[in-house]
Amino acid sequence: MTRISVKVDGTAYEDEVEPRLLLVHYLRDHLGLTGTPIGCDTSNCGACTVDLDGETVKSCSVLAVQADGSEVTTIQGLAHDGEWHALQKAFHERHALQCGYCTPGMIMAARDLLRENPAPGPQEVREALEGNLCRCTGYQNIVRAVLAASGQEVSS
Amino acid sequence: MTTTQERPVGFGRMPRKEDARFVRGHGTYVDDVRLPGMLYGAILRSPLAHARILSVDTSAAEAHPKVKAVITGQTLAGLGLAWMPTLSYDTQAVLATDKVRFQGQEVAFVVAEDRYAARDALELIDVEYEPLPPVVDARRALDPDAPVIRDDKEHQTDNHIFDWSAGDKERTDEVFAGADVVVAQDMLYPRVHPAPLETCGTVADMDAITGKLTVWSTSQAPHAHRTIYAMVAGIPEHKIRIISPDIGGGFGNKVGIYPGYVCAVVGSIVTGKPVKWVEDRSENLMSTSFARDYHMHGEIAATRDGKIRGLRVQVIADHGAFNATAQPTQFPAGFFGVFTGSYDLAAAYCGVTGVYTNKAPGGVAYACSFRVTEAVYLVERMVDRLADELGMDPAELRMRNLLRPGQFPYRTQTGWEYDSGDYPRALRLAMDMAHYEDLRHEQAERRERGELMGIGVSFFTEAVGAGPRKHMDILGLGMADGAELRVHPTGKAVLRISVQTQGQGHETTFAQIVAEELGIPPDDIEVVHGDTDQTPFGLGTYGSRSTPVSGAAAAVVARKVRERARLVASAMLEVNPDDLEWEKGRWFVAGDPDQGRTMAEIALAAHSNLELPEGVEGHLDASCVYNPPNLTFPFGAYICVADVDAATGQVKVRRFVAVDDCGNRINPMIVEGQVHGGLADGLGMALMQVIAFDEDGNCLGGSFMDYLLPTSVECPSWELGETVTPSPHHPIGAKGVGESATVGSPAAVVNAVVDALKPLGVRHVDMPLTPAAVWRAAQGRPLRTDLAIT
Which of B99, B233, B500, B519 has the greatest number of C-beta atoms within 10 Å? Predict the structure, then answer.
């Protein structure tokens, strides 16, 4: 067992964990932060995407011990004082989610894109989200939502 | 966020009520459920496709300090649970006892304190196998020397499951004998997998004190699951509660009961603790319900001037090792009988033979509407083959042969009665949106330059909303659905439904149906689903049946409440009920609109000391069971534009135009989202998805490394159009739509790619149209895409 201290969505945690414990299981099973789901076992789907010290990572492919001393932001840390993040609002208004399972990772990946490129074009959005699979939406409304959240005019 | 005032009171583009929890990570999916003392299960799976089990040694696993139980086939056999019934009246091994019949089959179940320990313990189980030759090629499954897979079944001496046919064979043969033109084509609809982003899982909690079993489960049909658990495990049905919480997509994958669910229940009984089992992706792809796997031989007959006369089809259906296909009892090939499509034929016949192979069970899944995907793909490919043979434009050939609006309700040659349709209008709209003539000109120019550009057309008629209970049941359970509506004293309402959303937005749209009927704002209507203790019986969500069946039930139950409200209002206003007229949300006195009562006022009065007319019970609620008189038959016209790189075989879908007609649209925003998702499914199936097998029966599509799903980059920006042809028999004129795009789009993509390859002499390529498959077809050496044997 290894001792780790990590800050998640603004709250500091200290834990003893097995070195092999995946970050996603640490978040879900140890901290009860179940907003970050698991969709695959080969690092393809991106459902588990979180922010680790400003970098977007697939938390199924990071060990919890690697997050020692780090700051993690999950989907559950995006809204502040009940006010939704612009992406959360845009996803709702543009119907960019259906079952909601890819949504946390999708929003976290889109957040990363908009930090680096505040006014992306549609193709740039598509390429930025290539690591996030969605089975419900056919992506179109997700692209529209990300463009809308970036403050750009979106047709239709 | 929009306010209630801006939202429609009824049908319209209402943003979803579900989103508030999902966008903040506050949904509750099965793996989010945590119960006190909960243990974790994991399944040991067969590495071989076909082998006798000589021994299973679990002693080392049992000695693991965190392991609480190890369950084997022998354990289950002692409980009479080693085998379970399937939705096709076959049996399926829960945990293998005699032999394994597909790679990935369930052999043992470990229950441990955490999921890591459970997986560790799997490594400690020692199984001794004696390998047997596997049956991999469905087309060889009935060979006299093929090994018999189901030697567990008495009287089963080969791998034959069923023969089923529809239509008039003799008459069809006559039509073919007299036809000017006959075109034949073999085609495979390959085995694919619905691959919902959330895999299957369950948390089983048997309370030894109360004797009550609670099962949180990824179930599209929780009531059916409850009944089946009662039948299988002998637990009284009132002591079983199934809860389908939020489900991360189903797509038909989560209709049936899987061995993991049963093992978790047994694990909970054995340990006295709740047991969670959640499969990983590779387990999901290798062992849960696959889709398609139809080897089809199609023939189409026509006159020289392009009048389609007949269709004749023979199918070998690969059902895997256990026939667990989900469909109504009388329909072993689902609704494949709608293969006559959108055309007026003189005769049609199809025969389907189901066979066992050493593969995972399934067949009906992935938005197939009970094999309508296969039916539509067949007919739409055949029409394109005919157009090529006649030298006619495929859109023109379709336009000439489509059923006309005046022919509805139309009875097909295989006995289906299509409810309504205006097909030429939809096709014309799609062609206008695509600028079809311009596309053909562009194609001619590109062909001059040696470029490969294809235009694919698909016109489909769906068959959704199973179904009339007289003809349709699953395991003897009639396919009618219940609904219960209760208006509280303050005018807020709760609607309880028997269907189960997996992302299709039922919590929003069902509230809109009631809102439309009663004038109560949708935000004031709570839609309850998924908990069998809290909802009326019904068969769940699949086959795009929610709107046709349960949506009808919601409208009918709301109308019952509206009639009760009329009686209460008449007592309040001291007038005859016949003197009252309805406007949305309010009963008022005919000729005196100021004299009226709103639903909220009526609701309070219904619960008060107001004296009600004789026979009126008070309160404001109703229930109903809706037994649909027929299916609904939505339709659509799709046009795909694809470019093919001749050097590499790579296909790029440049444009995709989709016109859908599902009758009246409850929430157009949600319909469009359903269509977008289905189009992506169709594109994925056409271009990249397949679960293939090698000659040893190894599954070659068992992870997202090999089983490819379209990303945002492969999907084009979808161009949608709509026409509205209501279903005449449905209370609100609405048809199902969820699966339409998955059903209609693969043929459009394949037709486009084959159209592009036409200058190279290619007439057909089997899906998936990977660069390898396309390149090989262009070389005149087509791939057999289902087998990794060249």
Answer: B500
